[in-house]
């Protein structure tokens, strides 16, 4: 019996109320889910809470799993990622906060840590909807790790202009509806 068939059998037994099957399932997947949650939220206590929520949902709503849509492991991974991102979304707007905290430093190295916490394509798409000079300054600063002075030299602009490009670019990023929805879901879509 392959691993997914065994998992499907466990899920069926969990659905029927088998505590021992749930315990086996838990032991098999707790490290897997914890690793996913910890990678996303970066905090052990938060990751433990997320795992608790995920396994409680497995116990209470095991009928949500549909074998025709993929493996149990993949279903669990998606559920864990979703709960982890939900947890991040409830906090202060993550992208804007991290970009702004980097922007307050006079000189800063490339910080790719925040990229791993959110969908890269969402950021790139939002950047494509702001003015070109703002996009270039933000990209050079946060993605290429250039200092404000280096950016000013490369763009052939005064240092103050580069700082303005970055500041106004961040403000324009806040207005991007898909990005706003990602970082501020409790507010929903803003009406303009």
Automatic annotation (TrEMBL):
It comes from the Bacteria. One of its GO terms (molecular function) is DNA binding. Keywords: Sigma factor, Transcription, Transcription regulation. Pfam families: Sigma70_r2 (PF04542), Sigma70_r4_2 (PF08281). GO terms for biological process: DNA-templated transcription initiation. Residues 25-92 form the RNA polymerase sigma-70 region domain. Transmembrane segments: none annotated. Gene3D superfamilies: 1.10.1740.10, Winged helix-like DNA-binding domain superfamily/Winged helix DNA-binding domain. Residues 122-173 form the RNA polymerase sigma factor 70 region 4 type domain. The keyword Transcription regulation applies. The keyword Heme does not apply. PANTHER family: RNA POLYMERASE ECF-TYPE SIGMA FACTO (PTHR43133), RNA POLYMERASE SIGMA FACTOR SIGZ (PTHR43133:SF62). Belongs to the sigma-70 factor family. ECF subfamily. This is RNA polymerase. It comes from Compostibacillus humi. The lineage of its organism: Bacteria, Bacillati, Bacillota, Bacilli, Bacillales.
